[in-house]
């Protein structure tokens, strides 16, 4: 009997030992830890840029001339274009353009520089700054800027008066003299708003106004097609032809179409990030200001207000945009790898470096129940940070 019990005990010991050995040598199920950004948003491949903008039309037939360059910022009540009655020699227009370009360049320098300040200390500081920047300009092969800096600095050192205002006045008088040589009359076009100048028009300026979006349906917006035209300076125009436009550069909008499945996200006053696929990956913060009622297909319009200046946004009407409502940055892990800590709102995972395994306390930022994954990051007081780990332990041994 004693022998029988000894055999049973021996078998039990061998079984336990075998299980232990199998446990120790069995491989750990693990995956590589990689940083991940999860976004919750709406894709709008056929969105429109909406702006407050003014289009200006010819009040007389003749030759149009732009005293403003494409993309320049203009002030209210300033001359932006001129229509000369009849035809004008192209050489005269080129001379006018050269003068206006020089005036614009000087005005930009005047706004940005203290080189022409009556304060001696400011002048000396500006000279030193420009001297220090010349090597960088040389690396960029910016010869024109180097010559400009050199001439100004040499003039100052020689004690010459290089007042920008005086130069602008001189060029303005020269322009007046050239204009007086044109025998025909003229009609100046003045801007009624401050903003960005453009000689491109598309026929949608009055339609895609922020105040009118509430009048439109999804089907109407889908049917809009911009008729992009550019009227060249020096070309002939008739009465009523569009000449140019000025666009508000402080606030503009993105008009998108969404589906009913996105209705829980798309709410008035929701803060979003707008990412533009065809604007070199540019993005800007925005706020939803309008959401229409859904149509029979469950689709609806929404309008995002953007207050960030993006130069490239003023060259487009149709855009491919993503509207991002939430963004989570961390590590994407299988939800099953997350363990609950001592309290219901504390979590941790096991991760490895080489052959060593560590407990890493973490926060769960986002969980996709259907897909079975979560986005996590280390807690601020975690002793073992996920960023220092190599692999995540997913399952038991």
UniProtKB/TrEMBL annotation:
Domain RND related barrel-sandwich hybrid, chain residue ranges per copy: 53-248
Domain RND related alpha-helical hairpin residue range list: 90-183
InterPro entries: BSH_RND-rel, HH_RND-rel
Domain of life according to the entry: Bacteria
Protein name, entry field: HlyD family secretion protein
């Amino acid at each position: 009997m004693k022998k029988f019990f000894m055999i049973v005990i021996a078998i039990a010991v061998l079984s336990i030992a075998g299980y232990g050995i199998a446990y120790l040598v069995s491989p750990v199920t693990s995956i590589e830890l990689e940083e991940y950004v999860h976004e919750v948003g709406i894709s709008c491949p056929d969105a429109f840029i909406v702006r407050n903008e003014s289009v200006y039309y010819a009040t007389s037939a003749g030759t149009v001339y732009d005293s403003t360059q494409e993309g320049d910022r203009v002030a209210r009540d300033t001359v932006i274009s001129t229509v000369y009655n009849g035809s004008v020699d192209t050489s005269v227009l080129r001379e006018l353009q050269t003068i206006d370009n020089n005036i614009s360049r000087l005005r930009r320098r005047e706004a940005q520089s203290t080189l022409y300040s009556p304060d001696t200390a400011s002048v000396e500081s500006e000279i030193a700054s420009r001297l220090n920047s010349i090597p960088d300009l040389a690396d960029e092969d910016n010869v024109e800027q180097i010559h400009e800096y050199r001439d100004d600095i040499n003039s100052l050192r020689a004690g010459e008066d290089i007042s920008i205002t005086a130069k602008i006045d001189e060029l303005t008088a020269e322009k007046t003299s050239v204009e007086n040589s044109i025998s025909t009359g003229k009609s100046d076009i003045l801007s009624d708003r401050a903003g960005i100048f453009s000689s491109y028009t598309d026929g949608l300026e009055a339609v895609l106004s922020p105040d009118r979006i509430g009048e439109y349906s999804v089907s109407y917006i889908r049917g809009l097609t911009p008729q992009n035209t550019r009227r060249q300076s020096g070309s002939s125009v008739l009465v009523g032809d569009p000449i140019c436009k000025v666009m508000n550069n402080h606030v503009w909008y993105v008009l998108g179409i969404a589906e009913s499945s996105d209705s829980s996200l798309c709410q008035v006053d929701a803060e979003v990030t707008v990412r533009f696929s065809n604007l070199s990956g540019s993005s800007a913060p925005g706020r939803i200001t309008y959401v229409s009622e859904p149509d029979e297909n469950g689709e609806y319009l929404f309008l995002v207000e953007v207050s960030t200046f993006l130069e490239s946004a003023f060259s487009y009407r149709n855009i491919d945009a993503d509207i991002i409502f939430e963004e989570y940055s961390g590590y994407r892990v299988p939800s099953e790898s997350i363990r609950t800590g001592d309290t219901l709102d504390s979590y941790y995972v096991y991760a490895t470096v080489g052959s060593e395994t560590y407990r890493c306390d973490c926060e769960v930022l986002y969980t996709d129940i259907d897909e079975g994954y979560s986005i996590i990051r280390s807690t601020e007081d975690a002793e073992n940070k996920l960023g220092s780990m190599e692999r995540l332990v997913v399952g038991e041994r």
